[in-house]
Amino acid sequence: MMICDNYGEAGALNYYNNGKMPSAVCFDADYIYWFPKMDTIGTLLRWGSIRRGLI
To answer: Helices marked H in 1-45 — which ranges?
Structure first.
């Protein structure tokens, strides 16, 4: 599964990946409802920019 910063990134990755990558989701808008059950996730990739000062 890939977690993106926004629904635009997630939508573009899902549209162009042609099944070659894991599904992309984000915490923005309705994409939050597309998360698979947590017990089915084997790999997690984080896609997006580094936000300094949040940690």
So the answer is: 7-16
